[in-house]
Write a structure and sequence with these properties.
Elements (H helix, E strand, L loop, with lengths): L7 E5 L4 H12 L3 E6 L2 H11 L3 E5 L5 H15 L4 E4 L14 H28 L3 E6 L12 H24 L3 E8 L5 H8 L4 H10 L9 H12 L10 E4 L7
Parallel strand pairs: 1-2, 1-4, 2-3, 4-5, 5-6, 6-7
Bound molecules: nicotinamide-adenine-dinucleotide.
């Protein structure tokens, strides 16, 4: 019996990175996982790689009409929804001087509006399924500021407050839906690898990225995947409205 046995999970941005690692961990604990992504090629490949309980639906999480269609498809094909993981997001780099208003708006559209839309679309079906869990992705960057992350810092800081408001609404409704968020430190995903490789001195960047965490190294995708399994499972049944930092101490330094 797995820790999330027979739960139906919708996980956005599951084609790669932390989403893919979380999908793998949830599958290993007995869940059925529907990954969605706007990168259809990578999404199909990941679902095929992760096995028959992993399914792929193409979705741009910034598209409100598509959210309605995706939730309707999940209900039609799987009959229920127990868990939503709002993982898809982008990092927009730049200081207040570098960023255009359009850059700033794009970061919020991808990283905050998408979570608002996902929760709004999914809560009725999770409630109808008997209650469940929503996990939103914030970041240590939502706690600790950086002069060159004005948009990403503020978008990721909005996520815990949005999470709390939605958690309070669900608690007031007594609909059985818990809502929490996660705040990873720097995790060595393929994308972070390519960011490091693209800098003028990759070795120095790798060292700096590692030392940003007081424990002296970057995290692994599985470090976050274990937390997602906990929050998706009934083990976390008393947790709602909380922000869970798994960040090597980054946010306290
Ligand atoms: N990797 C880190 O160090 C780190 C640290 C803190 C927080 N996070 C957060 O963790 C989450 C996952 O990060 P990651 O490093 O795995 O990212 P990633 O860029 O490797 O993967 C993100 C996935 O989301 C998809 N995606 C992006 N925008 C989308 C959209 N509009 N619609 C559908 N799919 C979309 C991408 O195609 C990709 O498959 C993000 O919310 C990120 O902000 C990551």
């Amino acid at each position: 019996m797995g820790r999330v046995q027979d739960k139906v999970v919708l996980l956005t941005g599951g084609a790669m990175g932390l989403g893919k690692a979380a999908a793998k961990a949830l599958l290993s604990q007995g869940a059925t996982v529907i990954i969605s992504d706007y990168n259809a090629e990578a999404g199909h490949a990941t679902a095929a790689e992760l096995g028959e309980r992993c399914h792929f639906i193409e979705q741009d999480v910034t598209d409100w009409a598509r959210w309605g269609a995706v939730i309707a498809e999940v209900e039609a094909r799987f009959g229920r929804l127990d868990v939503l993981v709002n993982n898809a997001a982008i990092t927009v780099y730049g200081s207040i001087a570098d960023l255009s208003p359009e850059d700033f708006r794009r970061c919020f559209t991808f990283d905050v509006d998408s979570i608002f839309m996902g929760c709004k679309a999914a809560i009725p079906l999770i409630a109808k399924s008997g209650g469940g869990s929503i996990v939103n992705f914030s970041s240590a960057a939502g706690v600790k500021a950086n002069a060159d992350l004005a948009a990403y810092n503020s978008a990721k800081a909005a996520v815990p407050m949005l999470t709390k408001s939605i958690a309070l609404y669900c608690a007031r409704e007594r609909n059985g839906v818990r809502v929490n968020c996660v705040q990873p430190g720097t995790i060595l995903t393929p994308n972070v690898e390519s960011v490091i490789a693209g800098t003028p001195d990759p070795d120095a960047t790798r060292e700096a990225f590692s030392l940003a965490q007081p424990i002296g190294r970057m995290g692994e995708p599985e470090d976050i995947a274990h937390l997602i399994v906990y929050l998706a499972s009934d083990e976390s049944k008393f947790a709602t409205g909380a922000a869970f930092a798994v960040d090597g101490g980054l946010s306290m330094a």
